[in-house]
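JOB MANIFEST
job_type = single_chain_structure
chain_count = 1
residues = 401
[input]
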Amino acid sequence: MSIESHIAWRYLFAKKSHNAINVVSGVSAAAVVVVTAAMICVMSVLNGFGKVVESMFSQFDPEVKVTAKEGKWFNLNIEQRTAIDNCGLLSVVCETVEETALVRYGDHQLPARLLGVDDNFQALTHIDSIITDGYYSVYDGAFERAVMGRGLADKLGMNAHFVGGMHLYAPKREGRINMLAPEKSLKDGVVFIAGTFAVNQTKYDDELMLVSLPLARELFGFDSTMVSSLQLKLAEGVKMSDARRALTNILGNDIIIQDRFEQQSDFFRIVKVEKLLTTLLLVFILLIACFNCIGSLSMLIIDKQDDIHTLSNLGASQQQIRRIFLYEGWIISAVGAIAGTVIGLLICLGQQHYGWLKMGNGTDYVLSAYPVYVVWSDILIVLAAVLALGWLAAWIPSRKI
């Protein structure tokens, strides 16, 4: 330990001649502790919400999704499908057709997004884990079945135990609309509900219905080579970059290949922006807390004028004397940062295990308590911000000596 840091440590923790300096120094350190702990807790909660929604999406969204760069569908011929199956990079390949149709059950009718899936869809996703009523089936060998979002089922006034069929209507792809008999311009089909699912996302629960791929193609006028998307699962150990390169070689450049995060890019972009804005706001509060050190050091400098003259007479340079008070201000920030980090981590761990802070009354939401997920890079960022601002706050009064 250098002589400057030793003197700074003594000034900070030894008894001072003026009690006000003790109080101001304690308030400065306490402010840094509180803001540091708050930053870690808030950032961890935002990470927790991101992880929760990510897990919800991962139960339904495919690991890789291939769509057309332009339009709603693209052609997948037999040679391309065979090449995809034999490339050795994919464990599951699922063809889908997605369009909007009118759904009618009894006196209720409303538009819905129909997603036609083949037999591989169940192996592709974790659909069984989000079934809330009934079971997953889109064709039982005799009847066309459907699995729909829980919100959509509620709007239609039905559940998985209803035996009546739902009517599906979609406009024909070709031909003119007969204004005298518009119903003749529609294709229709009948499905029976097998189950309902809940992802706790509106665009799924209130709008989506899963049906068999042949029914969707028949309803929307798609032939056997037309698909809205390919939903894929990578083989174990395969990198996304390798799969992207192979799919581009097989299907050409008129497609978009997205991983799970890219499929939900809007949501994750919002989460990142929200986290950034929250962090900037907390850094601004931290800046105010760190600048409390200016008052504490200024009072200490006034109190230690005699010591400053004595050190100068003993041969200490002006730079050495400045470093004494610079180190003292930085020690205040460092102690506050370390204590705040420990307190913040303890709060986060307690919230993870005991769920102290509830959401609502603990039963009205998807989660009973606020989720917490600690990212160590966030802790390093917080520590770096506290120490940097603490150094700046200590440099301002020390340079006036």
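[summary]
The mean pLDDT is 85.
The longest strand covers residues 90-105.
exit_status = 0
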